[in-house]
Amino acid sequence: MAKKLIIDGLGVEVTRKRIKRMNMRIKEPDGRVVISAPYRVPESEIIAFVRSKRRWIDRNAEMVRARAAAHPEPETKAEKEARRRHLKRRIEERLPYIEAATGLKSSGWAVRDMKSRWGSCNTVTFHLNFSLMLADRSDEELDYVILHELVHTKVPNHGPDFYAMMDRYMPGWKDIRKEMRRS
86 Cβ partners below 8 Å, 6+ apart? Predict the structure, then answer.
């Protein structure tokens, strides 16, 4: 059950969970601030956390609202499925090429309707998931996400080895990531 707090005029939804650290998300399309907090963290610490992140919240909430306005959800299920088919064709074309170029292999993949990430990799089974949001992105951006997830089949975290592999296979990946985060 989420508790609603007003902190310096900002509405925040707080959910208590069995987790170690507090985390914050900004939800589409309205830019709602949602915090998950451990049971043991006092409300005063949550308030201090929100206040310390206020500039980040304001900047990113506005970006989320602008992105939602610029890219509204497809109005019909048929439109969404058309975007899904289009993205699947692009992945079917690009993934084998990137696997061959890098020697990295996935066990399979799927397109999911993920809102907060471009992709994911199960580091045990090497199954990849790609966000439907990629349907609207360039081939270069799609290649970056495919490579990013494939590298996780060898390096499960974002440590130095991960970044070294990214640099080896796609030297300009940082610029692509920066552009994806900006838009």
Answer: 135
- 59-116 tens-digit pLDDT: 888 888 887 777 766 568 888 899 999 999 999 999 999 999 999 999 999 999 988 8
> pTM for this structure?
0.64
Q: Which amino acid is at 31?
A: G
- Do 1 and 39 touch, CB atoms closer than 8 A? no
Structure tokens at 183: 């838009």
Contact between 33 and 50 under an 8 Å Cβ cutoff? The reply is yes
DSSP H or E stretch at residue 78: helix 77-102
Distance CA 137, CA 142 (A): 7
Rg of the Cα trace of the chain?
A: 19
CA–CA separation, 156 vs 149, rounded Å? 9
Task: Kindly report, residue by residue over 151-172, the tens digit of the pLDDT.
Answer: 999 999 999 999 999 999 999 9
List the one residue out of 183, 157, 152 whose CA is nearest residue 169.
152
Token pair in block for residue 22: 């507090």
Distances (CA, A) of 109 to 19, 126, 127, 150: 29, 9, 5, 11
38-51 b/e (C-beta count within 10 Å ≥ 16 → b): eeebeeeebeebbe
> What's the rounded Cα separation, in Å, for the pair 154 and 146?
14
